[in-house]
Amino acid sequence: MTSLSRRAVLAAGAAMAPPAIAHAQTTYPVVGKVERLDLALDALIDADAVVEEVQGGFVWSEGPVWVGGKGGHVLVSDPRTNIITRWSAKDGGSAWLKPSGYEGDAVAANLSEPGTNGLFLGRGGLVVADSGNRCIGHIDLKTKRKSVIADRFEGKRFNSPNDLCVSPVDGSIYFTDPPYGLKDGLRSPLREMDYTGVFRVAPDNTVSLIAKAEVPNGVGISPDGRTLYHTDRTKGWVAVSLNALGESVGDRLFVDRAASGIMGGDSLKVDQVGNVWVSCRDGIAVIAPGGRRLGNIRLNDVVSNCELGGDGYLYMSSNRRLARVPIKARKLKI
After folding, report:
1. What residue segments make up the domains of the chain, in order of their start?
2. Quick one: which of 25, 51, 182, 199 could link to 32 by a disulfide (CB 3.0–4.6 Å)?
3. Among 110, 242, 105, 124, which Cα is nearest to 181's?
4. CA angle at residue 142 from 91 to 100, to 5 degrees?
């Protein structure tokens, strides 16, 4: 999000009264509830599931990714403080990598978000949308060594990659490239492209443009690799049809933000059967592959992104915290 949009969202979130909470045993603060709009939601999450905060202390939490099996952990970006944190039920939260992105003076470099943003497992490690270094990068999970996968298209530097996903078909990386990581956003003199868009990095690292879009944000891909979803600031959520080569062959409006009543819109994830979990101003909206909204996970604050964990929880980066809720849905296998 832009700084202005985020301030407006945070102010709106602060003014909201906390939602009514279902009673359940939990060792963490309860911060939300589930709202069922369609009976089909019951196959994905219980209507009485409790949302709880498991870690606080972020400036702006983003891009959670689950690492390992049932006993694994979550890595979470804080792009403004240039840190990736690690959280597990066993060990709690701690800094995992600092700096996660740009290693120089962010203020002097005119960067508002010098760290990583979106995180995704792929290529034998952690694939990152490195907002500060304005690239798609790779981090070795053992050595934490960083390398660049792609940082240019047609000779011009990316704006500041924000979110990404990996195709379950061929391992291609799809990512969005808004200017949110640059101090002056669309007006930044650092920009080399005169547009924002959605891009693909092929397995051989060839970069191609999927679509020009109005400040795109979240991105996710269907289980068959033939539909790419992305957030469009002015429209809502767009579904791009892909051919067997991973190229765009057309698009359609998947969810109209104005018609749906969904407030805001940031990142998203697609589950194993194709449901789309989109983050918004007060939580997560769960959308069936056909575009029908099944329900909401209401939090008392804005949600930037989410991740289907290997431990049966949906993890949500929510402003200054990391929250979770038990789910039945499973993560898309890559």
Report:
1. 3-326
2. 51
3. 110
4. 80
Instruction: Give, in degrees to the nearest 5, the angle at Cα 80 between 70 and 66.
Output: 10
H helix or E strand, kind and range, residue 260: helix 257-260
3-326: CATH topology: Neuraminidase (2.120.10)
CA dihedral 2, 146, 272, 298 (to 10 degrees): -30
Q: Which residue has the higher pLDDT, 7 or 243?
A: 243
Average pLDDT estimate for 139-162: 98
- Residue 42: phi and psi, rounded to 5, are -60, -25
Please answer whether residues 285 and 276 qualify as being in contact, where contact means their C-beta atoms are separated by less than 8 angstroms.
no
Asked if residues 160 and 178 have their Cβ atoms less than 8 Å apart, the reply is yes
Sign for the CA dihedral angle at 81, 134, 101, 303 comes to positive
Q: Count of CB atoms within 10 A of residue 57's CB?
A: 12
Quote the tokens at residue 193: 């492209």
